[in-house]
Write a structure and sequence with these properties.
Elements lengths: L1 H12 L4 H6 L7 H4 L11 E6 L10 H14 L4 E4 L16 H7 L11 E3 L11 H5 L14 E6 L5 E6 L16 H4 L4 H14 L4 E5 L14 H16 L4 E4 L5 E4 L7 E5 L15 E5 L3 E7 L3 E8 L4 E8 L3
Parallel strand pairs: 1-2, 2-3, 5-6, 6-7, 7-9
Antiparallel strand pairs: 1-11, 4-5, 8-9, 8-10, 11-12, 12-13
């Protein structure tokens, strides 16, 4: 029986070429490989949008900016969205079930291209109610990814390189906030020195090609807060760490504008994306400002091993500024 079966099987395969057998081999296609977004490729490996200071129930151009974000992310490759804080005006959210989650977030950023992961941080307005409610919302929302008040995330790019992003909480780093009647109760017990030690160790031990820090308050600004107490306080404690570890990019919000700042003798570039709704004035002629615009909009970042590209897009979908930063420049 075995001999007969073997002879019959051998005879049936004798007329089948190896090429035709290979052509009928099982494939390994995932849904991500054949959807329309798979065609959105460029010379960069990692892409993300950055928006800040946005949560106003759709008012003051929030809806217009959200619409252009969705359009941009539909037409360009994008992996996730960063929120630079002040996620809910005027006074944060009281719980993970606050109606503002729907009025200011879920029902505003509705485009399918914006259903990818959001990595938020806390702004000062988020501290006026319960900042931990935004941490707890992570367990409710699929796209809201905020595991704690400060955290980090590593992303892989080509040639086994990585991009490290540290998402920090700048509010406890401002001494005046600890005595403030609105911020104080939620800043109490945050131990800013513990967060700074965590950030120092993270930046020191990471082998990532690119290391980026995201915090709500700017270190430099060409807006109204150029010499404000909060800007100076954050600069005092963060700038030495960024310089020590030669961090190329610090991204913030707080100022309701879009800015690119670079102090000549400092290694890091400062970008401010804080005009997701409402804008405030900017100053012309600030010697460390490469770009400043009191314009509603968001930023788009694209990274590969050699360089990082930043574009500023306004609420009408126009690219109003673009810059490329070479690695380790």
């Amino acid at each position: 029986m075995k001999s007969t079966l073997g002879t019959a099987l051998g005879a049936s395969l004798s007329g089948v070429s190896l090429a035709s057998m290979a052509a009928n081999a099982p494939t390994k296609i995932e849904s991500e490989d054949i959807n329309s977004r798979a065609l959105l490729k460029d010379e960069y490996d990692l892409h993300f949008l950055a928006i800040g200071d946005w949560g106003r129930n759709g008012a003051d151009h929030q809806i217009q900016v959200a619409k252009q974000m969705g359009k941009w992310a539909t037409e360009h490759p994008n992996d996730f969205i960063i929120s630079t804080g002040d996620n809910f005006y005027p006074s944060g959210v009281v719980s993970e079930h606050d109606p503002l989650w729907h009025y200011s977030f879920e029902n505003v950023y509705t485009d399918f291209s914006l259903q990818w992961d959001w990595y938020p941080i806390l702004g000062n307005h988020d501290y006026k109610s319960d900042p931990d409610a935004q941490v707890r919302y992570t367990a409710i929302s699929r796209r809201w990814k905020m595991p704690s008040r400060y955290y980090s995330k590593t992303f892989k790019i080509k040639e086994k390189a990585e991009v490290l992003i540290a998402f920090i909480d700048t509010n406890p780093l401002i001494p005046e906030f600890h005595q403030n009647s609105e911020y104080g109760p939620h800043v109490a017990g945050q131990q800013p020195e513990k967060q700074l030690a965590w950030l120092n160790e993270l930046l020191q031990t990471s082998d990532a090609k690119w290391k980026i820090v995201v915090g709500h308050h700017p270190i430099y600004t060409a807006g109204p807060r150029t010499n404000n107490y909060d800007t100076l306080a954050v600069r005092k404690v963060l700038q030495p760490l960024l310089e020590k570890h030669r961090i190329p990019l610090y991204l913030s919000g707080h100022e309701h504008s879009m800015q690119h700042l670079k102090v000549q003798e400092k290694h890091f570039h400062q970008f401010i994306s804080g005009s997701g709704s409402e804008v405030t004035p900017v100053k012309k002629g600030v010697n460390y400002s490469r770009f400043e615009a009191s314009t509603y909009g968001f930023m788009y970042f694209a990274i590969n091993k050699e360089q990082l590209q930043v574009q500023c897009i306004d609420h009408e979908g126009k690219v109003i500024y673009s810059s490329i930063i070479p690695w380790n420049a």
